[in-house]
Design goal:
By secondary structure, the protein is an alpha/beta fold. The chain contains 14 helices and 15 strands. It starts with a strand and ends in a 10-residue tail after the last helix. Keywords: Carboxypeptidase, Glycoprotein, Hydrolase, Protease, Signal.
Length: 512
């Protein structure tokens, strides 16, 4: 039987003292007349409140008891004023007496502007939304236990940046530049993490960051920001479907590096020649990767100076590996755009393929055109995730609010300038011998493709001196590889192994 303890810590603009509350109803509507219905205009945002619930689950056959703290915690400015409240859920295993050696995982999703819903109820958290074994929606919507969660080996906090989920600025007068930009995002989130770790008494714990998609940009920058400004040192950073991390590609590399992803997608949809199609995916891809680096990239570097015979030969190989006709490849100067590929691959069969996961198929108004009408995979995901998270927070975590849960919130204009996050992560690793990096990629991800993720590691560490602390894992699904049940189990096991491997043995010093 689930036991529930409600602890609402209220601070009116953070200058009042904390007061314990016994009820679960939100205090956001205080001051509203009884006959007046709450509306966005009269809701009052409380940046510092939480509710605690107690649960049990079974992970890898082992019964686990845990508590979940759900609520908001402030972002403070330089003068000690609360300028925002970040919505979070913190899962702690209850039967652990010694937190000093208990790992803490701090989890972010991406966007920027995306809530942390995706990994919370579909990947590492103790609860799992109701979907089929390949990740497609099922009704009735709902939540079940996640038997593959990493909560058996680590506590987890899922953090939502400003304007995602229930996170908000405390006033419309707060400048958006405080939050909405690569480096502003890293700065205020590092400050928030520092306060969170202090409040929860987790300074002694081994710490890990995990970030998906744009979240990989975020946590790569946070690794150095936490070291340099919070004096907080990490044991690991996990990059799930990572971005380019500010690592410059150049025209030729941008064009070439997408081909292995094209090949994986074409293989999945059975659009390759028989000799390639009859191989297993991971047996076929090394041939494409070798061609990409050793032939395609040098050829594209020559641009218009590439002789016609070589151009035709390269086009034929791109066509062979991508499932796209040689004519189309030549029409696009050996550089078929992602969006055109998603439209073209199955055009003759009347389908498009998904951007974030090319296993998903869509139907357009017309077969002609240069890009799909919509993202087939994202529509599918929102179909199942949105009801599940709203039900889960209210019914399972007992957090009640009339604010809208933003699956995607407005974070525009976003300042993308001065992205040095890949270099930030490299510096953090060189300064901290304990710090390890794990990269997880889905072969069918067309937004943050797997081969660009490998390329990140090569370019981030040009000396090769850090490669023993970097690892890459691939999965037979897309951007959210964990939506496929088999990959959910494997990917969580890879994180579990990474955490165990990166914990230093007793008495082993952080030194070279």
């Amino acid at each position: 039987m689930k036991k529930t303890l409600f602890l609402l810590v209220l601070t009116a603009f953070i200058n009042h003292s904390y007061a314990q509350q016994t009820g679960s109803e939100s205090k956001e509507t205080k001051g509203i007349a009884k006959d007046e219905k709450p509306s966005p205009a009269n809701l009052v945002f409380n940046p510092d409140q939480n509710v605690v619930t107690e649960h049990t689950t079974t992970i890898k056959g082992q019964k686990i008891s845990y508590k979940a703290t759900t609520g908001t915690m402030p972002v403070w400015d330089e003068d000690g004023k609360a300028i925002a409240g970040l919505f979070y859920t913190y899962y702690e295993r209850s039967d652990v007496k010694d937190r000093a050696s208990r790992p803490l995982v701090i989890s972010f999703n991406g966007g920027p502007g995306s809530a942390s819903v995706w990994m919370q109820i579909a990947y590492t958290g103790p609860s799992l939304l109701n979907i089929d074994e390949e990740g497609y929606p099922l009704q009735p919507y709902g939540i079940k236990e996640n038997p593959y969660s990493i909560l058996d080996v680590a506590d987890i906090v899922f953090v939502n940046p400003v304007n995602t989920a229930y996170s908000r600025a405390t006033s419309k007068e707060i400048p958006a530049t405080k939050f909405f930009g690569i480096n502003a995002d890293i700065k205020y989130l590092a400050d928030w993490i520092g306060v969170f770790v202090t409040r929860t008494n987790r300074w002694s714990s081994p710490k890990y960051l995990i970030g998906e998609s744009y979240g990989s940009t975020r946590v790569s920058g946070l690794a150095l920001q936490l070291q340099n400004n919070q004096w907080m040192y990490l044991n690991g950073v996990i990059l799930v479907s990572p971005t380019e991390l500010g690592i410059t590609r150049g025209v030729a590399a941008d064009a070439a590096l997408k081909l292995p992803y094209f090949a994986a997608t074409a293989w999945y949809h059975k659009m390759l020649p028989p000799d390639l199609q009859n191989k297993d995916l991971t047996d076929m891809l090394p041939e494409v990767e070798d061609f990409t680096i050793n032939e395609l990239l040098p050829s594209l570097s020559k641009g218009g100076s590439l002789d016609e015979q070589k151009r035709t030969a390269i086009a034929a190989k791109i066509a062979r590996y991508s499932g796209i006709s040689e004519k189309v490849v030549l029409q696009n100067n050996l550089d078929v755009p992602y969006s055109y590929f998603w439209k073209e691959l199955l055009r003759d069969k009347g389908f498009t393929v998904g951007r974030l996961d090319s296993r998903y198929k869509g139907i357009d108004r017309k077969d002609s055109g240069d890009s799909p009408d919509f993202n087939a995979e994202l529509t599918s995901w929102l179909h199942s995730f949105t009801p599940a998270i709203n039900m889960y927070i209210r019914n399972n975590l007992n957090y009640k609010t009339d604010f809208k849960y933003n699956m995607f919130g407005s974070v525009h204009p976003w300042d993308n300038s001065n992205d040095a996050t890949g270099e930030n992560l490299r510096q953090a690793m060189t300064q901290n011998p304990y710090l390890n990096v794990l990269v997880q990629s889905g072969y069918y991800d067309g937004a943050c493709d797997y081969f660009n993720a490998k390329y990140n590691l090569w370019q981030m560490d040009p000396s090769g001196k850090l490669k023993d602390r970097m690892s890459w894992k691939g999965y037979r699904s897309g951007h959210m590889m964990y939506l496929r049940k088999k990959d959910l189990e494997t990917a969580n096991e890879d994180i579990r192994a990474f955490i165990k491997q990166s914990l230093p043995k007793s008495g082993v010093s952080a030194k070279y």
